[in-house]
Amino acid sequence: MNFTVGLPIRRVGADQSFADPSFVRDAILFAEEAGFWGFTAPDHIVAPRTWAEAGGGEEWIDPFALLGFAAGITTRIRLITHTIVLPYRTPFAVAKAVASLDHLSGGRMVFGCGSGYLREEFEILGVPFEERGERADEALRFVTACWAADGDVELDGSFHSIHGARVAPRPAQRPRPPIWIGGNSMRAVRRTVEFGDCWTPFDITDDQMREGLARAVELGRPVELAAPLGRVQQGDEVVARADALRTLGASYLKCGFGGRTPVAWFENARWFTKELLE
Question: Which parts of the chain sit beneath pLDDT 50?
């Protein structure tokens, strides 16, 4: 079983030091030294106030900047975009950013992406919310085409087109970095079967995860599952929950740690490490 960990997102009223570069550095180094398989970086360009005040999150470090920082201070841990919201980003910029990080990190990138869900964010960024599924599918075709092309990319779509041009560098991993598809819907499962390797749902029931894995087989092939373990605190029935998710079929467990301060966060992280990683 492989475990991934993400930084706490600074929420309204939360301790400001969670965004301090020294905490970010120490948390990433801890994750690698503790034996976590991967480090995740989330994606929202803007945080609408009503959503942030309801608990969605107020301050997000740009995922490519965060993973570039992580790549420079680590040597082993996988670097995971979890998850890039594809519809409001150009696929050419995404392909270049992921490939550049894969090249510079020695082939440690995992490309996690999804279609998004936050209507207010799409409206602020000027992208039609209703088109997000189609835009995500097309973006995946363009991103993978950019990575595969040995030279110029030639491709037309409904939203993008490229001819007589190339997007470089190519990723270090061949034929491409692993692709994780985020989302709870059966459309996300279908997108994983068509384009990816691993389905990574968020807040979801065990029955829904079983349904998604079965649906992938119906659609043509099994896929891996990255299951959410949630924000762990000492005293949680985390070992039993991890065993249950392993039995369900998860290949990866995604976790964060509770705590209202960095000190409390590290206490929970060290407890988790002793319980499950040592």
Answer: none
